[in-house]
Each structure stands twice: as structure tokens, then as C-alpha cells.
Amino acid sequence: MSAEEHYQKGIQSLQDGDFAKAEQEFRTSTVLDPQRYESWNLLGLSYQFQKKWSQCVDVWKQALLCQPESTDTMLNLGIACLADNKPKEAEQYWNRILELDKDNVRCLINLGLYYREREVNQRAHDMWQRAFILMPENANVQEWLADVKGLLGMQKIIHQQWDEAEDLLIDAVSMDPEYAVLWGYVSELHFQKQEYEKAFATCSKGLNLEPENPTLHHTMGNILRMTHQEDQALVAYQKALECGSKHPATYRAIAELSERTVDENEQVIELLFDQYADNFDTDLLENLKYATPTKAYEVYAAKNKDVSLQSILDLGCGTGLSILPFQSQINKDARCVGVDLSSKMLDVARKKNLYTKLFSESIKEYLEKETSKYELILCLDTLVYIRHLDFIFSRVFEITTQTFLFSTENTQAQEPTLQRSGRYAHPPHYIESKLKEAGFLHITQKESLLRKDGEHWIEGVIWMAQKSD
Length: 469
What we know:
Layout: H1 3-16, H2 19-32, H3 37-49, H4 53-66, H5 71-83, H6 87-100, H7 105-117, H8 121-134, H9 139-158, H10 162-175, H11 180-192, H12 196-209, H13 214-226, H14 230-242, H15 248-257, H16 266-276, H17 280-287, H18 292-304, E1 309-315, E2 330-340, H19 343-350, E3 357-360, H20 363-369, E4 374-379, H21 390-399, E5 400-409, E6 417-418, E7 424-425, H22 428-438, E8 442-453, E9 456-466
Parallel strand pairs: 1-2, 1-4, 2-3, 4-5
Antiparallel strand pairs: 5-9, 6-7, 8-9
Helix pairs in contact: 1-2, 1-3, 2-3, 3-4, 4-5, 5-6, 6-7, 7-8, 8-9, 9-10, 9-11, 10-11, 11-12, 11-13, 12-13, 13-14, 14-15, 20-21, 21-22
């Protein structure tokens, strides 16, 4: 039989659902006529029906050799490459299609899904935006585009790019006004801008659409709390819990408003700083006038100006702001170790080349196993996230050879107190007694303005505890 006859028998087998037989016929056709595009293409299809993805990729590559600009084959190849765990190849084939046909809607949709799955949201947005312009009646594309606009709007909120966030979110809710989550994003924008009436109104719209949405009830709790409606806020947080919220911040808010004792939650802290890592330095230095590291160095240098440091441990190092003022007293070959819960904060710190080693874990976990000794241990603007300090002070005393330098926020309370900001304030008498219990003999404290919170300065104390003068 000829290649054409085997090809026709293959088509009949495909129509009959006998994919193994179709595979045999198309394979024979390609042997008899290796340049026949149609045989390679349908051989790939027979493999696709059998989920033989690796063979699928191979034969569609052969088909492409026969017709190098076949966008249909490139589209299919991309699908097969994804199924065969070759995502980069899929991306390359689909981008090649757009070079040949920038308005290929199927390719734009596929690339949008590809990028969205990998959280490359701006590129997903750009693909779907073009697809939507070309095919505005496609309900799926409209829904996906609205969703990704909402996500990008939230990213703009995080970076305080209010106008861009508002543009994206207005587009999103106009495209999908029945999607409650988008109204939650709009509410968050107004909340962050301290436009609490608008935040309340838009969150209410979301709750009208989805009354059992736990995130929206939590958001409503935040709004009510900031407008000093604590009783109603507590009800909203409890409703969030009833609707299935598992977020630690919900439990914490309920505990705070119920005036129950609340210990720190490392998951909340990690999520918070991961979220703000990219914009952290700018926000702290420019908007909050962050002064803690500079103030701490002044206290240290007053007694240790001539010390040449060979080893520093920076607990809660964040992006590296704490260690910067000490650079003039750090030897070139010094051992500088940074520890922080947030891996994304450490990614920023790593680029600054300030540390010889960085560890992503809680400072309690790190101190439990650390045996090396350090001349200076820093812990700036970190203990405000920890209530009980006994263990930390005790372990720091064991591993420092000289100085422990840290900061706290002020309170008139007799015990460590969780503030409305979500940070702990520690009374000076508590700090001093715990340092002495740990074994520190010489304690220096200096009241300082640490940073701004809105228009107000946060009052705190810089502490320097030393084993000897």
C-alpha cells in the first residue's frame, strides 16, 4: 500500500477511536513518505489521544520540519511539551507563534494560562488583554483578565502605588462586578489609604455577593477596628472564623479584642515581611524615617569606638539595615551572620554582600543550636515581635563574648503588652530584670525616637548589655 492509503486508513482508525491502530497506519505512512506533513501531524494526534506525550513531542517536531511555520503544530507542540514536563520549550513555541501572528488568540490564551500558573502575573495580564481586545465576547478570558488585574492591583497596593492600583482595580470590577474577591481588593486599597468609609462600602459589596467569605469578614474587622468600633470588629473576626478562616491574624485579632494574653505568631510575621520585602528599605527609610540602627550604633560607639569587630550575629537582620552603621568597625575578614524568618527579606540582604552567612529561621530556633561565639550580637526592631525574652537573653549571654545591642518599644504597663500595631512593648524594669537574670553585669539604656508611625514617632529604648566594661 502507498503512503496515502496508510494515511486514509489511519484517519478511519482515528474516527473509530482505535488510536493504537491509527498510530501504526500513520507511522507506516511517514516511513513511506517522510516529507508528508499530514501524516506526522495526525501521528502526533494519535499519540495525544493515548497520552504518549514524549512521542507526541517528537513527531510534531518532525511535522514542523515539514512545515516550519505551521502555527497549529506549534500550538499543539506547546501543549505536548507542558504535558511532557518541558515548560520552557512550550513557552518558546508559543512565543514563536506570536512572532508569526501577533493576534493568534488561542496562543495568547495559552500563554496567559502558562504565565498565570507560574505567577508571572504581568505577562499573563498582557497576553489576556490582547486576547480580550481581539475576542471581547470570550467570557473565560474576561474572567481571567479581571482576576489577574485584581492581583496586580494588590501588588501595587503593597508598593503604595495608589493610582496604578486604582486603575487596575476599577478595570477589574467593571469586567467582573459579581466577583466578590475583587471588591475585597478595592476595599483593601481604600483601607491602606485610610479611606475607611469607602473601604467599608466596598467590603460590604463583596459581602453582599459572598456572605460566607472569611477573608472579607476579616477585612471588615480590620476596618471596624481602625474606626474604633471594637465590639463590631470582634463580631466580624468571629464571623470570619465561623466561615472557615484559618489565618493566624484572625485568631490573633480575636484574642487581642477579647483582652486575652497573646503570644507571638511566627507565621504572621513571616508572611508580613515576605510581602513587604521588595519595598521595605524605601518605606522604612523614606516614609518612616527609620533611625534605630543609627541610634544603636551611637550607643555602641560611645564605649566601643576603637573595637575592631571580628564576629557579629544579627538576629532579625531583615534586609541588612541593622548592620550598615557598623561597617567602619567590622574587619574585612570578619564573620557576619544574619538570621531572619523571612526568606524574601534575606534575598534583599544577600544582594548587599553584608553577611558571610544567612539563615532563614526564627531566632529562637537558631539560638537553640548555635554554639559559636560572637563579639557583638544585634537584635534591632526584632524583640517587638516576641513577648517573652527569657530564653533569648539567656542564650545570647552564653554565645556573646562581649556585647548584646538591641531595641524595645516603651510602655507604661507592668508586663510585656501587645499594642494595637501588633508589636509588643516591654517595660524597662522587665528588660533590666531579665538581662540580670541572664547574667549581664553592665547594662546601658538610652531612650530614643526609633521611627515614625504616621505622623507620630515611636518612642523606645536602645539597650546595650555587656559582660564586662
